[in-house]
Amino acid sequence: MFSKILIANRGEIALRIIRACRELGIGTVVVYSEADKGSYYLELADEAICIGPAKPALSYLNIPAIISAAEVADVEAIHPGYGFLAENAHFAEICRDCGIVFIGPRPESMKMLGDKVAARKLAKEAHVPVVPGSEGQIKDENEAIKLANKIGYPVIVKAAAGGGGRGMRVAHNDITLRNAMATASAEAEAAFKDGTIYLEKYIVEPRHVEVQVMADKAGNTLHFFERDCSIQRRHQKLIEESPCPVLDEHTREELCKAALKVIKEAKYENAATVEFLLDKNKNFYFIEVNTRIQVEHPVTEMVTGRDLIKMQLTVAGGQNINLKQRDITHTGVAIECRINAEDPARNFAPNPGKIERFILPGGMGVRVDTHIFQGATVTPYYDSMIAKLIVHRPTRDEAITTMKRALREFKIEPIKTTIPACEKILSHSMYLQNKVDTSFIEQHLTL
Ligand code: MV4
């Protein structure tokens, strides 16, 4: 096991990693930007090193500054958290070259799975269902039109370097398809310096279901069941839950087995999330792999009782997972609400400012992951998420009741947050009846 690691992140996830390290007896070095000076979690780490100004490019994305801090503090490993450098294969490679363990997958797996065309090919080879679409990348417009007519409109054009909803275009006929290809490719070229695109049948009103997996260096792979992340707005998830409320036991087993097939085929190690779309007929299709620990990992931790961050640390340290798949069980229902400093009245624009009143909810079945405290200032430089409120109860109805009660207790003043939006969703008849898909917020909610 490591004796000391560096945390290349900030906010609640930095705190989450510090907590896991403390319980494992691992020393922590946290790096921070000038904007994060005064954050409470900096006191909880054993060491805190300022790596630059507020601007992410100059601090949390500044590879030389982070590597220098790691060398000066003499750490054995770096945990990247999520966002920032978490899925940067180049950074993982530099860590390796410097003799520092990157707590995550090998750079080769990250690079391969970061290419959505390659990931799709890998899933196919592993006999995992993928959305009907192009064999590989698609270059020729006439070839695309021929394929679209074969699989049937609507189709979706996606960027190979995309993911998380960037560089996608839907087309309903030959004319809009030509357009979609040109704009998706240009957008991808501008955003990722890679205009490679591919084509899939557009699944109408899908649910977004993802499987948590963990793999050690010896090739032992485990899944930790699924999360339903259909409640999102512009590809920003707002509410996640586990288990997915519309999956039957048989489909759940098939889905989780499929996720493991992908991860084994990739010779993956450490934590990953395998994403699927679930259509109206409960068919699931692989879409992509996230090669990091995700924001919503606590819902999985609550239903399985397993500490995923601790597992990331032990697996990266070279320990094998001494658990069998049958040891991983899930009980009850967990729901997470993301509390963002955003103003719904101003189209969810970030709403930074000083927090004058901050009172946490509590009681049975309630967990809050946050780095915020009364008197803290939310700056405009980073993601607007300031807290995650997670509940775990025996049934979905009870989980929803507890979440509504906890949201009511949570006081964050005077800044605007997503608390009222979450309350509206949790009271909506369609949410209660599981009649939601990824377009729910846009289609049915005025927040
Ligand atoms: C799709 C799709 C429908 N059909 N692919 C968006 C994020 C990226 N990870 C994949 N996404 C989608 N891919 C096919 N073939 C619909 C979406 C999608 C979506 C997926 C998950 C969560 C929210 C979403 C919101 C809009 C579209």
Give keywords.
447 residues, Dna Ligase, domain 1, 34% helix, binds ligand MV4, Rossmann fold, alpha+beta, D-amino Acid Aminotransferase, Chain A, domain 1, single chain
Largest sheet: 8 strands, antiparallel
By CATH reckoning, the class of the largest domain would read Alpha Beta
Could you tell me the CATH topology label of the largest domain. D-amino Acid Aminotransferase, Chain A, domain 1
Shape: globular
Q: What order do the strands of the largest sheet run in, or round the barrel if closed?
A: 13-12-9-10-11-14-21-19
CATH superfamily heading of the largest domain: ATP-grasp fold, B domain
Helix content: 25-40%
Structural class call reads alpha+beta
**Total helical elements:** 15
Summarize the structure.
This protein is 34% helix and 28% strand. It is built from 15 helices and 22 strands. Helix 2 links the parallel strand 2 and strand 3.
Structure overview:
With 447 residues, the protein is α+β, with helices and mostly antiparallel strands. It folds into three domains: 4-103, Rossmann fold, CATH 3.40.50.20; 132-201, ATP-grasp fold, A domain (Dna Ligase, domain 1, 2-Layer Sandwich); 207-444, D-amino Acid Aminotransferase, Chain A, domain 1, CATH 3.30.470.20. The chain is 34% helix and 28% strand. It has helices at residues 11-24, 41-44, 63-73, 89-97, 107-114, 116-125, 141-151, 174-192, 249-265, 297-304, 308-316, 396-409, 419-427, 429-432, 440-444; strands at 4-7, 27-33, 47-52, 77-79, 101-102, 155-163, 166-171, 197-201, 207-215, 221-233, 236-242, 270-278, 284-290, 333-340, 342-343, 349-350, 353-354, 357-359, 366-370, 377-378, 385-393, 411-413. The protein has an eight-stranded antiparallel β-sheet with strand order 13-12-9-10-11-14-21-19, with helices on both faces. The model has no long low-confidence stretch (mean pLDDT 97). The structure holds ligand MV4. The site of ligand MV4 has 18 residues, from strand 6, strand 8, strand 12 and strand 13.
